[in-house]
Amino acid sequence: MTIKKFKGNKTGGALLIFFAGWGMDERPFTEYLPDDRDCLICYDYRSLDFDCSLTEGYSTIQAVAWSMGVWAASVVLKDNPFPLTGCVAINGTACPVDDEKGIAARIFRGTLDGLNEQNLLKFRRRMCGSQDALERFLAKSPERTMEDLREELRCIGEMSQEMEQPSIRWDKVYIGRHDKIFLSANQQKAWEGTDVCLIDAEHYPENYWKELFRSGKITDKQHG
Length: 224
Hints:
The chain has a seven-stranded mixed sheet with strand order 1-3-2-4-5-6-7, covered by helices on one side. Helix content is 31%, strand content 17%. It is built from seven helices and seven strands. Strand 6, helix 6 (184-190) and strand 7 form a beta-alpha-beta unit. Helix 3 (117-128) packs across helix 4 (131-138). It has one domain (2-223): Rossmann fold (3-Layer(aba) Sandwich).
C-alpha cells in the first residue's frame, strides 16, 4: 500500500484517512482535501501493509473509503491500534468480488484478462458516467503503469477470496444510484442492517468529494 501525507493549514490534532479505489493515486483527489486537518491518501492494494505510525499524535481520526478502498479499509482498520472517530464508505463493499454483494466474478475476471489502454478508458468512462466527467477525471488521472494496475487488480482478486470477509463498524454508507461498477442493488444487499443513504451519483462521485472529506457526511438534498 502506498500512503501519501498532506498537511493541513491548521494544527488541531485531526486526521483524515482516505482509502482510494483500484488504479488510483493521489492526483484525482488532492483538490478536494480539507485544509483544516492533515490527510492520508492510501492506494495501490498489491499489499495491505499500513504504517500505523502515521496516525500517532492525532486525537481525531476519520476514515473515508471508496470503491475497492472499502474492502482495503475493512481489512486494515479491523485490528487498528488507533481510535477512529468516524468511518464512512461510498460505492464499495467488504466483498469486492461477489456475484450478489460486489462485482460479479465473471466481470471482474473479464476486466483483469482484457486490461489494456483502450479497455481502461472504457472502464473509466463507466466509472465517471459521462464524457464530460471523464475528461475532467483524465485531466488529473493517476500516474500508474498498466503493469501496476493489472498486478493490483490480480492481488485484490486473490486476497479478497483468500481472506475471511472483514467486518468493521461503519457509521455511514453512501450508495450511488447510477453506479455502473459496484451496482447499486448489490451494494444494498451487502449493506443490509447498516445506515445506508442513496445518493444521486455515479461510481466516481465527483460532486461529493469535498463534502465527504470535510465532514464525512453528505447533506446535499439530491441524496434523498
